Amino acid sequence: MFRTIREQIDTVFRRDPAARSVLEIVLCYPGFHAVLLHRVAHRIYRAGWYTPARMVSQLSRTWTGIEIHPGATIGKRFFIDHGMGVVIGETAEIGDDVLLYQGVTLGGTGKDTGKRHPTIGNGVVVGTGAKILGNIRVGDYSKVGAGSVVVRPVPDQSTVVGIPGRVVSGMDPTDALEHGNLPDPEGQLIDELARRVAELEATVKALQAGR
User: In Å, what is the CA distance from 137 to each residue of 35, 140, 162?
Assistant: First the structure.
């Protein structure tokens, strides 16, 4: 258990430049509290004590604002930055070195039974408010932009943005998730439509002038 706590503290220091001391992390980081409480709840859940496990997860939710079902499987060095509003479903599986920002949902679609929540590969970064829904896989070292809604599988080392989420080209998945530099597929489509309308208007005016 002490090794787990030490690893989680090191993860916070590595992920968050605002972290200044171990005491600050232990007292003030809800993501730190939520992950450690989930480790406890998950062990209880695996032992078949489902109601006590849910009680621990409910305590964590009340304390941190982060809801992680005790059945979810989470790998090493998992970090939730800020964390308020994060929801992780029962059959979600999360790999190692994954980073989630606040408001992320790893949820179901409401139509499936059994494995109904996402599988998140190693090294994935999921931006603020993104929703990943259903029994799909987000590949290793992929990035999901803020506010995206992902309902289809994502290949390894991809960047996904938009509603619904689309894999975009021209992005280096090894870079940090710089939201200011992410492409906007909807905005690009609107710009293309506006350009096309302007061309058609110019053509109409030329035809009218020719008369």
Answer: 21, 9, 17
